Amino acid sequence: MYGQSTQFLYLHKYLVGGATTFTAHLIHRIMKNKPIILRSGNANRSEKKLRDFGYGLVYQNVASDVVHKIKYPFITLYKENYFHLISKLNEKRINFDDITLVIHDHRDISKSSLPYVKKWKLITIRKTVQHYLKNKFDLDSLFLPHPFYTYPVITKKVPTDVVSISRISFEKNIDIILRANKLLNDNQSIKLYGCISRIYVHHFLGGQNGDFTKYYYGQFEKSFSTLSKILAEAKFVVDLSVLKHDGGGTQYTFLEAIHNGCALILHRNWLKNNDVKEEYCDFREGYNCFAVEDEKELSDLVKKNPDTSRIVKNAKKLIKRHANVDWSFLLKND
After folding, report:
1. 57 phi, psi to nearest 5 deg
2. Tens of pLDDT along the chain (334 residues)?
3. What CA–CA distance (Å, rounded) separates 153 from 228?
4. Angle, CA 294 vertex, CA 292 and CA 298 arms, to 5°
5. Could you tell me which residues are beta bridge partners of residue 143?
6. Which residues pair with 131 in a beta bridge?
């Protein structure tokens, strides 16, 4: 089972967020027969049970000693709490570039993991992250745009909602959205969907008894059709992400919005900051997205309710790159 062809590994305890969506889009794009995703922990025994990964995929929890038996690991996400597996992957291995690791942001690599991963085949999905890894660790990586599976979309004639489908968590600036909602009428307010970080909600959004619950519509099912139903009602998608040592490129919330015909409202610091070189930036304010910095700008934009046809048309050009990028050359099969 684990020997002679590429095996996808997901090394994180949470099955939500951009890396989960990345794994789903990647597999749907390049694999005709959908594989079992392996997820390892500290257990001494592997489970026989297959569990729901979302997006029509399944995963299996396997014992950590299974990992070193995998000839061609393709790690779609690695986080430091799985550090104990890194050395196992390198045991008795001759060709270290048989291991592929996708790096999503600067936190995926540390001084601890560096000695183990530097000989692997490293893939970055934003130019800014690729630049950071080279400057910080002298790590070479191959940049490939996010793979995107162009699933069927649901359309409505006159979508009017303004929504956020980001995680309700740090670095997403959900607090700006809440403050903007206080400046808007109820029929204009921005609807929040997504997985909650309870710590973030408690400390930054006033807890479950604050205004947050008024605008929160829940965590949506991990399926392309469910997501498209939400976005079919939306004219705008708000994503105010600002990530350290990052920015300029795409995220899956951006691509999902564009694919479903929604106009993006981004944080201006995603487009321009000290980490983002101009040539790394896929977005231009007023051309393929709107941009704001605070609740006043955001609420004013929502009230103004501008025509989005040109913004959406220009943004659609990005999808072609992500729908056509070839990741299949990374697959191996003896």
Report:
1. -115, 160
2. 455 799 999 999 899 999 999 999 999 999 999 999 999 866 678 999 999 999 999 999 999 888 888 999 999 999 988 888 888 888 888 899 999 999 999 999 999 999 999 999 999 999 999 999 999 999 999 999 999 999 999 999 899 999 999 999 999 999 999 999 999 999 999 999 999 999 999 888 988 777 899 999 999 999 999 999 999 999 999 999 999 899 999 999 999 999 999 999 999 999 998 889 889 999 999 999 999 999 999 999 999 999 999 999 999 999 999 999 999 999 998 7
3. 6
4. 55
5. 124
6. none
Do the two domains 6-144 and 161-321 of this chain adopt the same fold?
yes
Task: Return d(Cα 283, Cα 272) in angstroms, integer.
Answer: 10
CATH class for domain 161-321?
alpha beta
Q: With contact defined as beta carbons under 8 Å apart, do 123 and 103 qualify?
A: yes
Q: What CATH architecture does domain 6-144 belong to?
A: 3-Layer(aba) Sandwich (3.40)
- Give the span between the Cα atoms of 28 and 146, in whole angstroms: 13
Decide the pairing of beta strands 57-62 and 51-54: antiparallel
Residue 305 tokens read as 């309710």
Please state, in angstroms and rounded to a whole number, the distance separating the CA atoms of residues 185 and 11: 43
Look at residue 79 and give its three-state secondary structure: coil
What tokens were used for 301? 């934009």
Distance of CA 237 to the CA centre of its chain: 15
Distance CA 278, CA 272 (A): 8
Distance CA 268, CA 292 (A): 5
Delimit the domains of the chain by residue range.
6-144, 161-321
| Angle at alpha carbon of residue 47, lines to 43 and 49, rounded to 5° | 150
Residue 4 — φ and ψ, nearest 5°? -110, 5
